[in-house]
Amino acid sequence: xxxxxxxxxxxxxxxxxxxxxxxxxxxxxxxxxxxxxxxxxxxxxxxxxxxxxxxxxxxxxxxxxxxxxxxxxxxxxxxxxxxxxxxxxxxxxxxxxxxxxxxxxxxxxxxxxxxxxxxxxxxxxxxxxxxxxxxxxxxxxxxxxxxxxxxxxxxxxxxxxxxxxxxxxxxxxxxxxxxxxxxxxxxxxxxxxxxxxxxxxxxxxxxxxxxxxxxxxxxxxxxxxxxxxxxxxxxxxxxxxxxxxxxxxxxxxxxxxxxxxxxxxxxxxxxxxxxxxxxxxxxxxxxxxxxxxxxxxxxxxxxxxxxxxxxxxxxxxxxxxxxxxxxxxxxxxxxxxxxxxxxxxxxxxxxxxxxxxxxxxxxxxxxxxxxxxxxxxxxxxxxxxxxxxxxxxxxxxxxxxxxx
Length: 404
Prior knowledge:
By secondary structure, the protein is an alpha+beta fold. The protein is built from five helices and 25 strands.
């Protein structure tokens, strides 16, 4: 009788083990996202345990612990962002897709263990060195899509790191190589999948920028060590006749929050226009959250207005709550819009602004409720000195408003 009672228990235990998929082998993997028939975006990650992965982009290390196994399939969810990798494990390889459901985007994904190089090299010696500043124009021949940028790169041998700064933010930590006279750079952070390729000849650069498999555009650049972008404090402003900002949007509990509420009265207020899907917004949110927590005793408040492309209010708030939990944000994040991250629609929600040019955008309000400055975009840690410069400027301006 005991044997009969024990048999179902053993079947359950061993049956579960039979269905338990193999964990990813520990070590460094090389992954590829297939962007076009011929262009792939490579990146590296390290598996440190069954439940832990590190994704590398130059100096950036993204810690991933949200990993699910089912049969022969693994689902890897990066922190904060909606995008995830779903792939089948087989013989030390992964094959599947990078998926962003709200945008109906699917990018083929593959990976193999034991390959630590990011880009394969065709030449032994680079023929160009891109270290320095590059005056850049994206979509130079298309007036509606044309925009300017500043490339900032450092090259050591074959290895190139750096970023492109634009008037609305930076393109994150880029890492790659100079292969002969061809520059190749990539980054993957769970939200954006960027690939840049360019032919470099002396002081000129001609290239292509790929964002996932849904967007590509040409760019040109010329070396210019003195080049600077327009001031981020002059791109967005209040329309004539306005000196204040007004809005009413709900928080996750359904409470309608306005700037006229008591919690903001006689306080310096920083209003953050952002989205949980936006990596530059994530960088800014990390900085603001730390500043807010370290200055809790001062007369300063932050409030974020989230413009989400999630298809439902429920999913939008789920993304907001995930961001707050992952970073530890204590200030309110209100849902200003869902179903679209359109900047023109965002501007309709805030009609006193000349436009919403960028996510993120920060609006600085003094204790009397007047808008004193609007900062477009955010230069994050990947920009190095520019990030330090922003922090110094931010702290100095907030201190000025606090003593008024």
